[in-house]
Amino acid sequence: MLLLCEHxxxxxxxxxxxxxxxxxxxxxxxxxxxxxxxxxxxxSALLDAPLAHATCSRLLLDLNRDVSAPDSIVEYSEDTTIxxxxxxxxxxxxxxxxxxxxxxxxxxxxxxxxxxxxxxxxAVVSVHSFTPRYNGVTRPWHVGVISHEDRVxxxxxxxxxxxxxxxxxxDNEPYGPQDGVFHSVGxxxxxxxxxxxxxxxxxxxxxDGAAQRQWAERLQRALLMALQPPFPGSSA
Length: 236
Hints:
This protein is of the alpha/beta class. The chain is built from six helices and ten strands, in the order βααβββαββββαβαβα. The strands form three sheets. Strands 2-1-5-10-8-9 form a six-stranded mixed β-sheet, sandwiched between helices. Helix 2 crosses helix 6 (209-226) and helix 4 (152-162) crosses helix 6 (209-226). 39% of the residues are buried.
């Protein structure tokens, strides 16, 4: 298992002057996936799996978008203008791509290459959180599993999570590949023929370490069930 957490941080280096945002807005879900890093770290420990995570806010550049995508660097997020992203020069865009996007994805590529060279079967799972309300619309799901062409891993995870009567589980909800959110998993998992999926947990359910641990244990059960031999994508 290799875990990714592309929206782990809301850190914006000082010379960007918070991109013109208030402290309140810098703490909101528009700047990061609240609780996702804590969840990913708990899951990493339970699975003894490496974790690659962002160290800067997605408002500088979204690691989970192709650099050519309109929402790679957003000027507006939900109901909020991002002043420091307005009218960016091509030079600044290139600087952020080379300083943020390229190093992260090159390191993930290198990690996967080293694992495969060592004969280690590898599944790629990206850990995210989502806001309970977006643009005034309440979202009913507690958790979502996002997949695309290869649904083997996702189908088993969905069945495991849906076996818990108290959960509302989304299949490609609240986001799906059609929304452009599958970039990292598509690049590092699907394109290599590796089992892969994204996990989205509602961020109000990840309020503290205990809640994150509870969700990590729940997801551990689902992932271990999905990765029982024969390993998805293997010939064994």
